[in-house]
Design a protein that fits this description.
Strand content: 15-25%
Shape: globular
Mean pLDDT: 90
Helix content: 25-40%
Largest sheet: 5 strands, antiparallel
Order of helices and strands: EEEEEEEHHHH
Structural class: alpha+beta
Oligomer: single chain
Radius of gyration: 15 Å
Length: 138
């Protein structure tokens, strides 16, 4: 599930929110499971708030992750270290109408790296279940 999953600028990987403190948060790395403080001055992005630009509007990151999971049958996505052209072709396959002028290769690298981290941590089922739950409520 993307709720409570954070990306912190300048730090590799994804983090799970563990606790709030007076000056920020305590987070746990999904890569090495180490807990560290994340200060309020850090640029912290909650994955549930991230959207990808398309020609018709914005698509929530959760929907893009669901599309990748379906394409890969729950397996790993393309490596974030693949060539720019390969990343663009892969993004077209999972989100055909993404805005090519506003979605950069660096953005794609983050999305695919985040997907692979979530997949390695067996968190994709929670993401898809959360998306389906949201759809039923609408």
């Amino acid at each position: 599930m993307l709720k409570g999953i954070l990306a912190i600028s300048g730090q590799a990987g994804l983090f799970k929110l563990v606790s709030n403190t007076k000056s920020g948060f305590i987070v746990e790395s999904l890569i090495d499971k180490k807990r560290t403080p994340a200060h309020a001055t850090s640029k912290i992005s909650a994955l549930e708030d991230i959207a990808i630009f398309t020609e018709e509007g914005d698509v929530q990151l959760q929907e893009v992750i669901k599309n990748i999971k379906e394409k890969e049958n729950g397996g790993q996505a393309i490596s974030h270290k693949a060539s720019g052209n390969d990343l663009k072709a892969y993004m077209r396959a999972v989100l055909p109408n993404y805005d090519e002028d506003r979605v950069y290769v660096s953005d794609m690298k983050k999305v695919f790296q985040w997907y692979n981290i979530l997949q390695e941590n067996d968190m994709l089922n929670e993401v898809v279940a959360e998306k389906e739950e949201t759809s039923v409520e609408e």
